[in-house]
Amino acid sequence: MPDSPATRLVHAGRPPAVGGGPLNPSVELSSTYHALTGPDGMADPSVRSYARGGTGTWQALEAALGELEGGEAVLLASGIAAVTAGVEVALARAAARAADTTAPGAHRPRVVVPSRAYSGTVALLRHLRDTRGVDVVEVDPALPGALEAAAAQGADLVWLETPVNPTMELTDVRAVRAAVERAATTAADGRRALVAVDSTFATPLLQNPLALGADLAVHSLTKAVSGHSDVLLGAVVAGDGDLAERLREHRTRTGAVPGPFEAWLGLRGLRTLDVRLQRAQASAHVLAGRARGHRAVRRVRYPGLADDPGHALATEQMRGPGTLLALDLADAAAAERVAAATRLWVHATSLGGVESLVERRRRHPAEPLGVPEGLLRLSVGIEDVEDLWRDLEQALDRSLERG
Questions:
Q1: Which among 161, 357, 367, 371 would be 20 to 30 A from 113, CA to CA?
Q2: CA 294 centroid distance within chain
Q3: Which residues pair with 137 in a beta bridge?
Q4: Considering only CA atoms, which of 347, 344, 373 is closest in space to residue 358?
Q5: Residue range 284-293: average pLDDT?
């Protein structure tokens, strides 16, 4: 298989080349399969019997994602299902480890997470804190070295987003891995925390968390990978087989399974990720540069800009700054005026589709309070950049109007 990720994503996950056979995997629309019993009278575990345990359509997309990320991919029903699977597997692993070394119930799981991250992730962890006693340490991702310092104090799971949604900070994954390694040297059982990275903003083309030292790479495939705003889908890619098996067991047990047609659409979207990403990323860079010259904009958050706090790390850790940027306006009212005034930019939640989206994230009650009230998240699509800029510029102009 060629080394270039842009080429691999086109060819990965295809069926064997057989004369007269299909080029693309088909949608496997079946819930039930013929049974096969082994010589011991038990069901043969190598043969699927029910679609909740896996389908051929899932496996094609899992193979492609695993190849791109360098691990074993486990497909799930949505991005938040993938987040939940990663968190629950880490907590179960911690509980099993504690059972070997402490009295029952004596261990309180500890999770380190950025205080500004995807609101669904923060809400999940706070729910686990309130209902199951998980110690959740929320750290400001804008403070240099803060996440590494918290990880060095010991944890069962360090959950990262890089870039952070929606404030665009970057975290040094290698430095966090080094911190958890140091913490393991003083831990009672000598085992280190798992490091999980939500890499949705970057996609597998711009960043590979497992190669940077993470144990889990998490993606909302709903976003740029599928790319057409028509699918709910998620995945976790594990760096070792044991974690992958735990993730598959979680998926089967909880029923957080994707539909076969959604998996097929996700694989079809993956094929064009590189060309969509290149165009949208180039446009994002142009728009970020122009927006910071507008008098309505107080700050542009985009790691592709040379003076952005995350620029140096993005250059080292990523293969491009991505298609997302954020604009800080004076206040919530100004940001809402922009969102209401655009004609091409769609005022909507989500990101990564072919259409450009804009949203004031603090309009959602669950959004972390550290996100500025006047912050607009912009997901750049594949429209002509000049059209996008004209629309954004006139909306920014109108945001300055009063009355």
A1: 357
A2: 31
A3: 112
A4: 347
A5: 98
